[in-house]
Amino acid sequence: MQRTALDFWVGLFVLIGIAATMILSMKVGNLNVYNTSQNYVLTGHFENIGGLKVRAPVKSAGVVVGRVTDIQFSTQTYDAVVTMSLDSRFPFPKDTFASILTAGLLGEQYIGLAAGGDEAMLKDGDKLMKTNSAMVLEELIGRFLFDKASQSD
Amino acid sequence: MFKRIVSGIRSIGHRVIESIWRLGLASRFFMLVLLKSGTSFRRFGLVVRELYYSGVLSLIIIVVSGLFVGMVLGLQGYETLQKYGSESAVGTLVALSLVRELGPVVAALLFASRAGSAITAEIGLMKATEQLEAMALMAVDPIARIVAPRFWAGVISMPLLAAIFSVMGIYGGHLVTVIFIGVDEGSYWSQMQSAVDFRFDILNGFIKSCFFGVAVTAIAVFEGYNAPPTAEGVSGATTRTVVTSSLVILGLDFILTAFMFRGVS
Lengths: 153, 265
What we know:
The complex is a heterodimer. Chain A is an alpha/beta fold. Chain A has 2 domains: 1-30; 33-142, no CATH class. Chain A has 3 helices and 8 strands. Chain A has an 8-stranded mixed sheet with strand order 7-1-4-3-2-6-5-8, with no helix packed on it. By secondary structure, chain B is mainly alpha-helical. Chain B has one domain. Chain B is built from 10 helices and no strands. In chain B, helix 4 runs antiparallel to helix 5, helix 5 (90-128) packs across helix 8 (185-195) and helix 7 (142-181) crosses helix 9. The longest helix of chain B has 40 residues, at 142-181. Chain B starts with a helix and ends in a 5-residue tail after the last helix. The A-B interface holds A 1, 3, 6-7, 9-10, 12-14, 16-18, 20-21, 23-25, 27-31, 35, 53-55, 57 and B 45, 48-49, 51-52, 55-56, 59, 95, 99, 157, 159-161, 163-164, 166-167, 170, 189, 192-194, 196-202, 206, 264-265.
């Protein structure tokens, strides 16, 4: 085979390979702002995180604004400490309310942020003061039964 | 009786020593290839030539099998997911299984049988016809001139082939589920994008395919270079290349998966 033809085919092969890698990262992997842009880290204490997992999305008004990066158990307060990394394009007020919600009936769990009205904004490393735990089905049923029982008295 | 037991133990010992000796030989040969691969980068034309034979000529089998693997994944995934009313997650299923496992592993298996066997047969035949010795007599190092370019060509082409395989599979799944069956196109892509993570899935799959590329081509050049210089020797070495690299790929895949995806949900 002639040298120029060989070079052409190899060049084409390498280009197709690189294009495939690009398609994988852009179209399939959705390589987006969370890997490249500036982030700031927040922590929040939750009484019960239910089925929340590391890398779960943090959403506000349904839009993904960050990801959960770490979940630890605190032996001081006996609750779960959730660390999340938020895109610094989206600053939130100090009194932002964080709650653990579920996408759909059986879907994955995520953290929903509801912005408050405070003038001061949350900074890197701040702690979210207002949190709301995950709904646990057994507790919900238990409360419902308890209410029913107390009504019938 | 006693003698028989002793000879049995001795044969086990002989086999173990033999295989360890062979492993040592292989790793010394691998180090030698790495040490002498300067030439293949100074004269990159040598690597380009081998890239044509191991990469470009493997393209057709990779593209066609990627397409069909993706189509089958789409069909089977749809059949199962449909029972739970979540057929829109079929894109996630196809993409995750291809990018994480099937892309690197099946592409490496195909590469081992398509390009690895060819490398072994070529080098083995060169040895059998004493071309390598002739080269050494002319003060041309056969490892630097013959072995290292083939090794690096395989290492370069393997990740590219795996990526092409995954992309073809994802489009194959798209063809079957979206165009033939009628799953919603938007949810096919969007659910896939929300589930596939660049670092955890795509980068790990890429790293896997790099490991497989090194393993397959290292085995292929070693078997070829150490083939007994007879017709039977070359054919045996070619068979051993395919068998050993397939087993190594699957074993390595388990080890790499255990390290990469442990504790990550």
